[in-house]
Amino acid sequence: MTDALVVTGLNKRFGGLRAVQDVSFTVKQNETVALIGPNGAGKTTSFHLITGFHRADSGSVLAFGQEVVGLKPHDVCALGLARTFQVAKPFGAMTVLANVMTGAFLRDRHVIAAREKAREAIDFVGLAAREQTPAKDLTTIDQRRLEMARALATQPRILLLDEVMAGLNPAEIDQAVALVGKLSQRGLTIVIVEHVMRAIMAVARHIVVLDHGQKIAEGAPKEIVENPEVIRAYLGSGYAGAGGGAHA
Amino acid sequence: MLETVAQAVINGLLIGGIYALVSIGVTLIFGVVKIVNFAQGEFVMIGMYISYFLATYFGVDPLLSLLVSMPTLFLIGVLVQHFLIRRVLGPNDMPQIFLTFALSLLLLNLALLLFTANYRTVHTSYSDEALHFGGLYIPEAKLIAFVVAMALSGALWAFLHTTDLGKAMRAAAQNRDVATLMGINSNRVFCVAFGAALALAGAAGSLLMPFYSAYPFVGQVFVLMAFVAVVLGTLGNVLGALVASVMMGIAESLGIQFVGADSGLIVVFAMLLLTLAFKPQGLGGGRMR
Amino acid sequence: RGYAADVVNIGGLYPTTGSMAQIGTGCVAAAKLAVDMINEAGGIKSLGGAKLNLIISDVQSDTTVTRTETDRLITGNKLSAIHGCFASALTLIASEVCERAKVPIITGSSSDQLNKGRKFTFTPFARASQFARAQLQMAKLVSDQPKVAVIFENTAFGTSTSNGLKELAPGEGVEIVMFEPYSAGFTDAGPLINKVKASGANALFSVSYLNDLILIVRTVKQVGLNVAINGGSGGFVIPDFYKNVGKLAEGLQGVAHWNHDMSPDCQKVNEAYKKITGDFLFEYAGGLVAQTFMLAEALERAASADPQKVREALSTLDVSSGYAAMAPGGRVKFEPDGKNAYGRPVGVQWQNGDLASVFPKEDARAPLIKS
Amino acid sequence: MILLLLPQLVSNGFALDIFIRILLFSFIGVAWNLMGGYAKQLSLGHVAYFGLGAYTSTIMQIDFNISPWIGMIAGGFVAMLASLPVGWLCFRLRGPYFTIATIATAQALMLIFLKFRDFAWGAEGTTIPNLGSSPLMMQFETKASYYYVVLGLLVLGLVITWRIERSWMGYYLVAIGEDEDAAEAIGVNAPRIKRHIYMISAFLTALAGTFYVQYIYFIDPATAFSFNISIEAALVSIVGGIGTLWGPVVGTVLLETTSALLQSWLGSSTGGIQLTVYSLILMAIILWRPTGLMGLFNDLWQRHLDRRPARMRTLP
Amino acid sequence: MLELKGVSAVYGAVPAISQVSIRVNAGEAVGLLGANGAGKSTTLRAISGLVRLTSGIISFDGIDLASLPPHRIPELGIAHVPEGRQVFPEMSVQENLEIGAFVPRAKVERAKTMELVYEIFPRLAERKKQLAGTMSGGEQQMLAVGRGLMLKPRLLMLDEPSLGLAPVMTDVTFEKIAEIGKMGTAILLVEQNVSRALSLVDRAYVLESGRVTMQGKSDELANSKQVQSAYLGI
Ligand SMILES: Nc1ncnc2c1ncn2[C@@H]1O[C@H](COP(=O)(O)OP(=O)(O)OP(=O)(O)O)[C@@H](O)[C@H]1O
Ligand SMILES: Nc1ncnc2c1ncn2[C@@H]1O[C@H](COP(=O)(O)OP(=O)(O)OP(=O)(O)O)[C@@H](O)[C@H]1O
Ligand SMILES: [Mg+2]
Ligand SMILES: [Mg+2]
């Protein structure tokens, strides 16, 4: 079985700053991988590179064996890679339903079919009650849910989630984690960026750690939280001390 | 031949200074208030009429009348911002554009009603004189206008970049609510910006008066050039607008000389479209400077 | 009801707003003056002293508005005739509407296109091509070897006039060293005059509207260029020109449809107009007074307010005295294409702040001053 | 229905003329609205296509004696083709950059038609030959016939808009107008969609150009490429409500009626009054309803719906 | 120092908070907890004058805030770090911080405060010239907090300061907030990371659907069954 996502030697500079340096990692099909690292480590930039919003200076990204570096974002999406944005970008003037239908049209141009698919995605993320609300009137949290629903409506095979759980309280995080779990059960491959370790530990099979644009560690969650390098750069002593149980 | 070219460049440079005054006003309003002011040309017209009437009835030299036209237009700017523009500020830029468009139509026709369509000219001692160097000449009135234009642009740039009020303007432009949290009165800041931009238009009017005629439609002649200049020099970028204006003046002049007298604008438009094709953000890069 | 004869409605189409408002407002004043004169003199006698009723409409210097307004004037009022729209694009449209509605239109516009296949369009004044010939002949009067730079605005007015110049120059023994259209409404005449200077011309023909011309004349002064300027018609022959350039205008030549000193009649009307507006009667406005009288004359002969009959009367009109004959050449008789068989332009020169008729001899009221 | 019978009911030619203008500018507004309203690409250079349509059919008619009916379609295709390079250039730009680039292209086109005098009559322009009544050549004796032609165009424009609005394309357009990056992220090929809608919009605008020339019997660059037409196209949509099916129509009805009434009341008085009043009214409308009059109608409609049981309110 | 009495506010016709009464004493750190959409941000916005009150009184040192124009409120020494990293995207990091000290009371010590901010967030010092809009999410959050500190506030209101911060950074930030509190600045903290928040504040209020439903000392709340199940996920 081909791997879902194979990133090799990815590089991106902004002026003098090397935001992403020689990053390589592999995501197997139907696996959930977390991308973590301190602020400014290059996680969002990596997402931009994979989905075509930035053009990589060098390196390759294979999605199910197909090269996507150089493709436009819509082509990448058509190949089955859907993403969310760190700062949600809803279509403010459209209703929640219309937002999600717009995503659904990628696979089915019929309005009625698209509406069906959209409703399903909306239900899935728990926004059914707000179906007719204009997106600009949603709370930031709901806007992120909407963005997930919209991405799901494109029927992706790989879903890239950028901090969709930021700002949730622990109880809400548990719900969100369950949601991601359900997506995984449906066969989706997921790459998730998150600073909430409670969530990472719960969903990720495999963790890739970036720092200053470079990969500093990679492995199973258990190994990662004990990796002194990761503790120094990212988790902080507070986390190690609390033995991973605390909310962070 | 060389002389002809040199003269063409001088001519272009000088008129570019006037374009700069108009376009910097447009770019300032865009940079701060985030609207494209289609009525900017009509405010130049008002400046011209102020200078004209002061010169005709009180014998005030148009250059001195700068001291009246600039404050008057500043005040008008504050009022326009406070009573009109403020009400349509929002994410949608269509109403704003058309509000200023309607304002332009209003001012133009009001001028027609009050001042008739007649052309009005002021003759000063320096109006039709020029400095001659060999075969080259520099019209005095235009030279003065150019120098004052450059000085005003420089002052504005310094203001925006070194003073807190200047920074506050840019902050308010980017996020009004958060600017309020910083203690910035965005309403007042916008009024000041709009006022300053109109004061520049007023200055342009007064500086034009010694060598140009005032009439109700005069603003439209300059405003198209100003728009091209602000886009060419990146919207909101004062330095960019200045450089672009001067470049356009020179391109127009050379175009008239070497492509054809009816092709000055074509050359300018071609320059705009080419620049945008290769640098969609304009020459000034992506930000307000 | 039919065309009752207690009042006769005449339409006037003039831009009193928009870019041509300048001339349009003067025309409206002149048209009103002419109508008052006719009415005071007893109206149309063959219609029992019916008064003329002038219905003015603002065509806003805009083509769509012109189309609509011409229609509105014709259908909304029982019009006997229309005059108006000196600007050629507007006149062409108004004329097309009038042709289809079968209402005669008399106009001061000099566009040659107006004389192509039209039955209801009458043009009592000189045509664009005639202007060119007069200008060339005047150039010969000031210099033995005229080397002319022709610059013209890239509008209908500019191109049609200048085409004549180019065609006729060789025949008139005039050398054209520069022939350039320019974009009307420029911000700076510097580059253009720079080019004229480089051409080595000793005479400059500028086919321009007022503002461009003001800048051109002032720039020529700044450059210190020594050329004889002929400003043609249009913006050059209106009072505002002198008001704006002052002394610089002295000695500049032009050609006009009409001039206020051509005949005692013209002078009389001029005085009356001056009393109202304070300015002298400029060509389009003066021509309009004459046109109004031509219409009155035609109505008189037709003894009917029916537009068809008025058209018949106009086409057979032949006057050589009175206000209706106030045209250079002194006689008005329309040819089948609507041209005045005797139409010609008058050469003028700014002298002491006034516009003096200097060419041809028959119309001259003052000698041409050679600078 | 009433619209169909209108010419029979209204005998006054002037009133009919106003209706023709209303329909024509509604149609231009509808064409503009497809791109400017739904996809929020504020073009102020649509007159470029209007002019190209006008010139194509007039050149075909006068130089080759081809019926303007055919010329009209040909003009549409010329405009469509022309929209490709213009779109290629302008769509890389966003916001005011886009707007000003469109103004510049339209102006440049006018200057080119002015410059090349031998190609299409230059600045002098030309009048349309008077053929009397000749429906095959789009010349009619009665105003009513012109009325039906332009009514047909408007219906065409509205049907196209209606179909697009309800389809995936409509959703894509609005999405692009809201946030192009987000649209790309869900697989919307924004450049292509914009290109397509621009072509449709240009095509329709060009049809209006042909009709216009045939109706006013005259063409020259200043008329065919008048900035006012670009403005009017956008203005009627904005006043009526952009991105709505009926917005441009509502806006045109309001603005054209106002301007026609002002013109007939004040048209003969001193220069400037009617336009002064007109611009005041325009400002008042924009200040009062920045989102357009359709917003008002929708609010009223919503209020009406609110009084009914909630289940009625779910969309189909 | 700060007192809200029966404050209500609406968005359009939708009530966002109703009859909210809270108090922050001088030098005290107070938390504002609650689920999404409970009205926490709205409460802060009401204090800053960004939403209009439909009823109630907000007073600060006896001054009625609702009667002041919103831009006068920071002059009193109230800093508000808004939710969701709202930096000025087209200004540099340094300019953002300068603007943070726009009011006269902060301007005098601007250079010194800026040193302090750079010390807390070295990343900002490294990127003085970078446009704020191109910073990463977490970097922007640091900038927003830093900008709030620039005001030299007497009352510091923080709306989810840890949003998007890496765990190490969260630790540092909370430490510094605690330090600032110890130096006498009153703090009003909105935070989803409830256990963290409770360990920092002295007292807290719990909002539910726009109403205050619980209040008390932080340790009391931390031990309350209700809080534990609803907000701590225990
Ligand atoms: N357009 C840009 N210009 C300059 N620098 C940039 C640009 N975009 C990103 N950067 C820098 O590149 C680095 C990586 O940013 P990125 O957004 O990928 O971080 P991140 O890992 O997502 O961090 P966070 O967890 O804070 O969201 C940051 O230091 C950021 O400031
Ligand atoms: N701009 C707005 N327009 C309309 N409703 C709004 C707006 N902002 C907030 N609301 C509504 O007001 C209520 C309170 O929102 P608020 O942002 O204060 O909640 P919060 O407690 O800060 O939540 P969060 O944890 O999501 O930040 C919510 O129901 C929300 O939907
Ligand atoms: Mg990030
Ligand atoms: Mg909040």
TrEMBL record, chain A:
One Pfam family per UniProt: BCA_ABC_TP_C
Gene3D superfamilies hit by this protein: P-loop containing nucleotide triphosphate hydrolases
GO terms for biological process, alphabetical: D-alanine transmembrane transport; L-alanine transport; L-isoleucine import across plasma membrane; L-valine import across plasma membrane
Domain ABC transporter positions: 5-237
Keyword terms, alphabetized: ATP-binding, Nucleotide-binding, Transport
One GO location term (cellular component): plasma membrane
CDD domains according to UniProt: ABC_Mj1267_LivG_branched
Classification via InterPro entries: AAA+_ATPase, ABC_AA/LPS_Transport, ABC_transporter-like_ATP-bd, BCA_ABC_TP_C, P-loop_NTPase
Superkingdom of origin organism: Bacteria
GO molecular function terms listed in the Swiss-Prot or TrEMBL record: ATP binding; ATP hydrolysis activity; L-isoleucine transmembrane transporter activity; L-phenylalanine transmembrane transporter activity; L-valine transmembrane transporter activity
Function: Involved in beta-(1-->2)glucan export. Transmembrane domains (TMD) form a pore in the inner membrane and the ATP-binding domain (NBD) is responsible for energy generation.
Name of this protein: ABC transporter ATP-binding protein
Organism: Bradyrhizobium rifense
TrEMBL record, chain B:
GO cellular component, one term: plasma membrane
Keyword field: Amino-acid transport, Cell membrane, Membrane, Transmembrane, Transmembrane helix, Transport
Recorded GO MF terms: transmembrane transporter activity
Topology term for the membrane: Multi-pass membrane protein
Subcellular compartments: Cell membrane
Pfam families: BPD_transp_2 (PF02653)
One annotated GO biological process: amino acid transport
Domain of life of the native organism: Bacteria
Alphabetical list of InterPro entries matching this protein: ABC_transp_permease, BCAA_transport_permease
Residue stretches spanning the membrane: 12-36, 43-60, 66-85, 97-117, 137-160, 189-215, 221-246, 258-278
Family: Belongs to the binding-protein-dependent transport system permease family. LivHM subfamily.
Protein name: Branched-chain amino acid ABC transporter permease
From TrEMBL, chain D:
Membrane-protein topology: Multi-pass membrane protein
One GO CC term on file: plasma membrane
Molecular-function GO terms, alphabetical: branched-chain amino acid transmembrane transporter activity
Any Pfam family hit: BPD_transp_2
Record's subcellular location: Cell membrane
Record bears the keyword Cytoplasm: no
Transmembrane segments: 14-35, 42-62, 68-90, 97-116, 145-164, 197-217, 229-255, 275-297
Name of the protein in question: Branched-chain amino acid ABC transporter permease
Organism: Bradyrhizobium rifense
Lineage of origin: Bacteria, Pseudomonadati, Pseudomonadota, Alphaproteobacteria, Hyphomicrobiales
From TrEMBL, chain E:
BP GO terms, sorted: L-amino acid transport
InterPro entries for this protein: AAA+_ATPase (IPR003593), ABC_transporter-like_ATP-bd (IPR003439), ABC_transporter-like_CS (IPR017871), BCAA_Transport_ATP-bd_LivF (IPR052156), P-loop_NTPase (IPR027417)
Record's function text: Involved in beta-(1-->2)glucan export. Transmembrane domains (TMD) form a pore in the inner membrane and the ATP-binding domain (NBD) is responsible for energy generation.
Any one GO molecular function term: ATP hydrolysis activity
Stretches assigned to the ABC transporter domain: 2-234
Name of protein: ABC transporter ATP-binding protein
The keyword Transport appears for this protein: yes
Xref: SUPFAM superfamilies: P-loop containing nucleoside triphosphate hydrolases (SSF52540)
Keywords of this entry: Amino-acid transport, ATP-binding, Nucleotide-binding, Transport
Similarity comment text for this entry: Belongs to the ABC transporter superfamily.
